[in-house]
Design goal:
Layout (H helix, E strand, L loop, with lengths): L3 E6 L7 H14 L3 E5 L3 H5 L3 E4 L28 H11 L4 E6 L1 H14 L3 E5 L15 H22 L2 E6 L6 H9 L4 E3 L7 H13 L5 E6 L27 H13 L3 E5 L11 H19 L5 E6 L2 E6 H6 L6 H9 L3
Parallel strand pairs: 1-2, 1-4, 4-5, 5-10, 6-8, 6-9, 7-8
Antiparallel strand pairs: 2-3, 10-11
Helix pairs in contact: 1-9, 5-6, 6-11, 7-8
Bound molecules: 6-O-phosphono-beta-D-fructofuranose (F6P).
């Protein structure tokens, strides 16, 4: 019988996390299950920093950006005695299981804790990068697409006024979902993503061709993790962050400079950065967060540990954490080809 569950949000924040927290608490209350929220992801589990989440605590959360629980990139697998720390926290708070809202890193740690230590965990996918497998959408992605599409629209009009090349850099470390979606929605003239190494000379040729047919401006959308065909363009080394990951951001400058050199066109760069992660969630993010929050509690009530609440074809479904984290979900070639049709 499930009576007490722990809840945490881990990894980078995004819009829609609060909607998911609210959904978990509201659904749990219906079965008299208490929810203990851990502060700041796994950090709060290891430091046993909790708060009881009830109806009052989740009032007004639906439309609020960020996560009311706080988050961090701390992983029990990189902290001394981290795994034992999770086991201890579960015992101290007499928790029957955990609901973990996270991206690839947080969900992979959840899988290991479940598979290797037997800790009862259900996952919920969130990441603006949308690269968690087995779910059509992750919480936060569509809000980020909305922000990036609006930026592309706005850049279009100023690009046209000045006959400029506008380079719009969006997030997307290993997968170019935001760039592809915002690029298609925003009518981009080139989309550069990690899945398809780009040839900068080819991009320059394309922009010159556009100018030759009377279109003297262009919008180029680039994912921060895009990579050139080896040997075609030198990218500056990214600094390494405190968790050992390259701190991305800035490829837009290299691309704009290279395009100016090759075409003689005036280029400008916009790096959207964390604007894509902040602010209130789009309606669909609110809905999928609600669907997945409810589904995660129902999975816990059914004892379906080691699963992740996902959304497929607009329906909430239960998938295995193992399948969801086996490999990153990358942009399929067929979708990228749709964007290419409009490069024109
Ligand atoms: O959470 C994914 C992500 O948004 C990536 O696209 C980006 O590279 C990274 O987070 C940046 O994270 P932070 O600035 O919080 O370390």
């Amino acid at each position: 019988m499930v009576r007490r569950i722990g809840l945490l949000t881990g990894g980078g924040d995004c819009s829609g996390l609060n909607a998911a927290i609210r959904a978990v608490v509201r659904r749990a209350e219906k079965d008299n299950v208490s929810v203990y929220g851990f502060r700041n992801g796994w950090k709060g589990v290891l430091e046993q920093e909790t708060e009881v989440l009830d109806l009052m605590a989740t009032r007004g959360l639906l439309h609020r950006g960020g996560t009311s629980l706080g988050t961090s990139r701390v992983s029990p697998y990189f902290e001394p005695d981290g795994v034992q720390g999770v086991i201890d926290a579960m015992e101290v708070h007499r928790l029957d299981g955990l609901i973990v809202i996270g991206g690839e890193g947080t969900l992979s740690a959840s899988l290991r804790l479940h598979r290797d230590e037997g800790i009862p965990i259900v996952g919920i996918p969130k990441t603006i990068d949308n690269d968690v497998s087995e779910t059509d959408l992750s919480i936060g992605f569509l809000t980020a697409v909305q922000v990036a599409s609006e930026a592309a629209d706005r850049l279009h009009s100023t690009a046209e006024s000045h006959d400029r090349v506008m380079v719009l850099e969006v997030m997307g470390r290993h997968a170019g979902w935001i760039a592809t979606y915002a690029g298609i929605a925003g009518g981009a003239d080139a989309i550069l993503i990690p899945e398809v190494p780009f040839d900068i000379d080819g991009v320059a040729r394309h922009l010159r061709h556009r100018a030759g047919t009377g279109r003297d401006f262009s919008v180029v959308v680039v994912a921060e993790g895009a990579e050139p065909v080896p040997g075609t363009l030198e990218l500056p080394e990214s600094p390494i962050d405190e968790f050992g990951r390259p701190r991305l951001g800035g490829i837009g400058h290299t691309i704009a400079h290279a395009l100016e050199e090759r075409t003689g066109f005036d280029a400008r760069v916009t790096i959207l950065g964390h604007v894509q992660r902040g602010g209130g969630p789009s309606p669909v993010d609110r809905i999928i967060a609600s669907q997945m929050g409810v589904a995660a509690v129902e999975a816990a009530l059914d004892g379906a540990w080691g699963t992740m609440a996902a959304v497929q074809r607009f329906q909430a479904v239960r998938v295995s954490l193992e399948d969801a984290t086996r490999e990153l979900k990358r942009v399929p070639e067929s979708l990228y080809r749709v964007g290419e049709v409009f490069f024109g």
